[in-house]
Design brief:
Blueprint (H helix, E strand, L loop, with lengths): L7 H13 L6 E4 L11 H5 L10 E5 L13 H8 L6 E5 L4 E4 H5 L3 H11 L5 H12 L9 H4 L11
Antiparallel strand pairs: 1-4, 2-3
Helix pairs in contact: 1-5, 1-6
Length: 161
């Protein structure tokens, strides 16, 4: 299905969740149209069940520094509005590419995603704010930047060979 690119990957993820919420089962991979700039070995990592995100781990403060320049960083405001915990800093996956279990998504009601989808259609900086919030929304543990290297296929896994 072709969608207009009005909210980058965030709009596409939210549209899929809202349209298929009742039918979501098993594992779901959310990735960009071209995932390789964020994960050169994306195809290989798909074959490895242990890999739960595709990209490097980044961290910014509550103002979006050091990555956020010239845009409205609203992640903390989103947290307040949507009832999410407000962290001291945001640890996130550059590119917002994840492998999730449907249960992770369904821990929040469809209405939650419908509201985020509506915001994605009017707020220009929405995708970059959500990039920082997906780990909170889906409860994806990103323990440290170092996990980006650890969170790869074991060296003896066929996908790593």
């Amino acid at each position: 299905m072709l969608l207009p690119n009005i909210g980058r990957e965030a709009h596409t993820y939210l549209y899929h969740i809202v349209q298929h919420y009742d039918d979501l089962k098993g594992e779901i991979v959310f990735c960009q149209g071209n995932p390789f700039p964020h994960d050169r070995k994306f195809i290989h990592h798909l074959a490895c069940d242990e890999v739960r995100w595709y990209g490097r781990i980044c961290e910014c403060d509550i103002h979006g520094n050091p990555h956020w320049v010239g845009a409205k960083f609203l992640a903390s405001e989103y947290c307040r509005v949507f009832g999410l915990p407000i962290p001291d800093s945001y640890r996130f996956v550059s590119g917002a590419q994840y492998r999730l279990h449907a249960e992770q998504i369904k821990k929040r009601p469809r209405k939650f995603y419908e509201t985020l989808l509506a915001v994605s259609e009017i707020q220009r900086d929405h995708p970059w704010n959500l990039e920082r919030l997906w780990p909170i929304i889906w409860n994806v543990p990103l323990a440290s930047k170092a996990m980006a290297d650890v969170q790869r296929c074991p060296s003896n896994h066929p996908a790593a060979l």
